[in-house]
Amino acid sequence: MLENLTxxxxxxxxxxxxxxxxELAAAMMDRAEKQNADLNVYITTTRTEAEKLAKEADARQExxxxxxxxxxxxxxxxxxxxxxxxxxxxxxxxxxxxVPPYNATVAEKLFNAGLVLTGKTNTDEFACGGSTEYxxxxxxxxxxxxxxxxGGSSGGSAAAVAAQSAYYSIGTDxxxxxxxxxxxxxxxxxxxTYGRVSRxxxxxMASSLDTIGPFAKTVEDLAMILQTIAGSDMxxxxxxxxxxxxxxSGLNSDLxxxxxGVPKEYFVEGLDPEVEKIVRAAMVDYEKLGAKLVPISxxxxxxxxxxxxxxxxxxxxxxxxxxxxxxxxxxPEGEVTDIVExxxxxxxxxxxxxxxxxxxxxxxxxxxxxxxxxxxxxxxVRTLIKADFENAFKEVDVIMTPVSPGVAxxxxxxxNDPLAMYLEDxxxxxxxxxxxxxxxxxxxxxxxxxxxxxxxxxxxxxEDLLLKVGHQYQMHTDWHKKFPAL
Length: 486
What we know:
By secondary structure, the protein is of the alpha/beta class. It has 15 helices and 13 strands.
């Protein structure tokens, strides 16, 4: 079955002319459209665009002029990534009719590499959430259990890969928005070092934290995607001129002597006992591969969630100030008498409750008299969290933790309890604060058959090490080969 292929296998099949890109596109689009009523993976499916792009890839295949390893392989993009001529809503009513005039850099790189776009995936509105329930277009359902969430905010991107309606997808990770849905949906997901992938043309949430990264069935596939999208960009000054290595070349190196840090702060009260047991079993598997487990401490971890929910809303409120209903976006209903009323009505009718909550929080912590007490102090603690990791990486090569305190929860279970929802990111936020890369790989299932994810962290710009460590685990386990029967 074509949908069962990995990205690498689909790529090899195209190059060996076992099937045409148009055959892959038809298989993926059929699944995407059939499943969407149940799963709500896509805000917009793009069959017309996919057929056009696939036919172009067919012609290149026939001539032996394929653009590279991704050419002709269907993939999906999170709906906060600008795509020229294709609706890009950021899952918000305020952008319900926004069709960008240009591609984001990450989209442009993938189109230039031969991406066949299956659609724009669902997300929490403006990426504000951990469950993809805060979407103006309804929640994405978990392919393993339709009554549960897919994680967020890149839930649609993770679910697309888990439901096998795309061979890979692109999401964003600000505080855990790739790693959490990857764990909940049982796929592989990579949060890159801050600045490793250009953010140009991607709707900004928190500009000092946002990162762009891939989802796929395997870590080997992630390496192929990152090879295409990584690198500096003149349009994004936060992308440093750090060389992009060959991410696939070192995947097969062994792990003899690898030092794995196990932070005590991530194995605490509130962690699901089943999750802890499964994650610790994965670490034992690493010991069998020649790695050594080293107990470490990251003492400032306990402050990470609190300072994240100061810094992130502050930056979000500044970024969302541009949505006024004048230059683009929603035009308010009813009569408007002046410009101030236009702003009020546009934002009241256009933004959802979670976005409003975060804007109000952000405006508060940035206001006169509170900036020093909250935002400036939070930035100082962020520096201490970063120092925690820097000190740890002097002693160990990588760090391993659970991705989340639990597995995918029921739709609606936490949507009215913001604090409970925010704590889902307790294990992913610290790495975001430090700007380091993090990988989520499937490492087992709980007694209800729900996936559990292992988080692997590495120093800045050490994605090659991270990918090697993840790939070696997948070479010796089968968790990543299991998919829901849909």
